[in-house]
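Lab channel / #folding
Pinned by the channel admin:
"Please post every new chain as: sequence first, then the structure tokens as a reply. Keep commentary short and put observations after the output so the thread stays searchable."

First post following the new format, from NK:
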Amino acid sequence: MPEKPVYPHVKLRVLIRHVARLRNVPSRDIERIAKLTGITRYLDFNVKSLSRGYLQRLGLALALLGDPEILLLDEPTANLDPLSRKEIIELIKDLMQDLGVTVIIATHILPELQQVANYIVFINKGQVIEYGDLNSIVTRYRVTATFKIRTDKPRKLASKLIMLEKVKAVEIIRDGLLVKATGEGVEEIKLYLEEAIGEVASLELISSELGELYEKLAGIN
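Reply from TO:
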């Protein structure tokens, strides 16, 4: 989907049906894809009437026709307002989970990328300067990170985690804890949680200071 729509006066349903026909995708898949990407109520609207956020949703819908195994997205949140950017990131996460599709994202907005990525490649001036799974990158470079821990005993677990040397802060939230720790503390936290039977349901890395890490690796600072 080009950044500026080629067919602004065409209804979404007509455009999607046309692309589906080119890819030999059954027309019944249009409704399914529209529902997955949240554009069902706009199917009979012209493309030009969509906001930038919904143009991105339309682009995702067109890309998903034919159920590809790999989805390549170039700056999927570029030029969007904060709310739309958050919605697109959440949509990508849902698509990865619901469809099992591998998503490759090219972006300069690292705080958003780390919300959906489990493997990262840093490129500077056309050269790969570092790569690896997100947890190993965080650990290797001692990047400060925030984890979400789902637990049915948040207060009990918080009182124990805050005593760990590498843990900087612990916040109790509705369904668990937010734990901020230095990268070298990741394994320490994991080892502790493995022993916390009955207290932990899941551990998820939700943010880290990858922007600062990229600047160091690229020699910007």
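NK: The chain is about 40% helix and 20% strand.
TO: also worth noting, The chain has a mean pLDDT of 84.
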